[in-house]
Amino acid sequence: MARVGIFFGTDTGSTRKVAKLIHKQLGDEVADKPVNINRCDADVFAKYDILILGTPTYGEGLLPGLTAECSEQSWEEFSPNFEELDLTGKIVALFGLGDQVNYPDEFVDGLGELYDLVMDVGASVIGRWPIAGYDFNDSTAVEEGEFVGLVIDKDNQASLTEERIAHWVEKITSEIGI
Ligand SMILES: Cc1cc2nc3c(=O)[nH]c(=O)nc-3n(C[C@H](O)[C@H](O)[C@H](O)COP(=O)(O)O)c2cc1C
Questions:
Q1: Burial level of 17, CB count in 10 A (0-12/13-18/19+)?
Q2: Can you give the pTM of this predicted structure?
Q3: What confidence tier does 170 reach under pLDDT thresholds 50, 70, 90?
Q4: Domains of the chain, earliest start first
Q5: pLDDT tens profile 75-128
Q6: Whether the CB of 69 sits within 6 Å of ligand 1
Q7: Confidence at residue 67, expressed as pLDDT on a 0 to 100 scale
């Protein structure tokens, strides 16, 4: 069984594409295919040692909620499940998508929310990412001068996406030794 589970929320599909690129780089031996969180129950993380969780940001700095594509559940609806979860001992790497030009004051805040949710239930978060190369005013996803996970801005910096993913996947695999 693959040791890494990849889960994402999305509205317009970009976060799914990034999840697929991360999966492709890790390979089937290491990671199972990415799963939309809209299909998941609370116990979905149990079988993995390592989780990669991704989210866009919507509604002025929030996790994605109900949309046309995702009519039953997204991170917002899944998030109460964290109250019952214990992620102690799990290694978690996070990635977030956002738009630094139109939302410079709440850039990738959804990533910050996801970080708080997993930290509150004991996860060990790896895969921090430099803020250099982005231009924004504020973000709840920044802690001690770094993003708490990979940040992708497909709206304004699409040409950097693959290179950023490649560097980040190298970084997390070396941090966990897989
Ligand atoms: C209505 C709306 C609100 C958004 N709010 C934010 C925001 O507060 N912060 C941010 O960084 N990006 C924001 N975005 C940008 C999206 O997070 C970004 O386009 C992302 O790539 C979408 O991912 P998805 O295709 O997986 O849904 C917003 C986009 C829309 C359409």
A1: middle
A2: 0.95
A3: very high
A4: 4-176 (3.40.50.360)
A5: 988 999 999 999 999 999 999 999 999 999 999 999 999 999 999 999 999 999
A6: no
A7: 56
* Closest ligand 1 atom number to CA of residue 9: 26
CA of 63 to the centre of ligand 1 (A): 9
Ligand 1 centroid–CA 99 distance in Å is 6
CB distance 137 to ligand 1 below 6 Å:
no
Q: Which of 120, 117, 105, 47 is nearest to 77 (CA)?
A: 117
CB of 1 within 8 A of CB of 33?
A: no
User: Would you say the CB of residue 61 lies under 6 angstroms from ligand 1?
Assistant: yes
